[in-house]
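Here is the promised in-class demo. Please do not try to memorize the tokens; focus on the logic of going from shape to residues.
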């Protein structure tokens, strides 16, 4: 939750809305968090802190086709999060340099080098999709 709370896109989102956005991915184990070690100010205490996160869904063929032409960010019902074999990045808050490394690790380790897709918000605010990984 800390990664979302520190991301400017989510700072005005009510806590319950943030809960609804993250719980399906957490429930299905379809999330990853990138951490860095930080030293707390004026102490010798060192602790890991979250700097980026990725939430993904594994959707059905029908949802995959629908997502490829989506013009608005889709809202997934709980069963949709784990309904098929198509990996879709649903959100990736935090430091995008850290998230990029996390996506690379997920591609190699979690996704078994299967291609995955992500929603991208263009500068004009419109939605597009992008495929990552091999065809």
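The designed amino acids, position by position:
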């Amino acid at each position: 939750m800390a990664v979302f709370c520190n991301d400017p896109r989510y700072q005005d989102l009510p806590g319950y809305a943030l809960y609804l956005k993250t719980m399906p991915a957490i429930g299905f184990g379809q999330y990853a968090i990138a951490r860095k070690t930080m030293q707390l100010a004026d102490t010798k205490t060192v602790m890991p802190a979250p700097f980026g996160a990725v939430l993904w869904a594994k959707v059905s063929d029908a949802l995959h086709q629908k997502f490829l032409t989506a013009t608005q960010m889709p809202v997934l019902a709980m069963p949709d999060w784990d309904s098929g074999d198509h990996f879709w990045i649903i959100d990736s808050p935090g430091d995008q340099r850290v998230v990029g490394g996390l996506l690379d690790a997920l591609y190699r380790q979690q996704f078994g080098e299967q291609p995955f897709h992500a929603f991208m918000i263009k500068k004009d605010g419109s939605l597009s999709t992008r495929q990552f990984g091999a065809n």
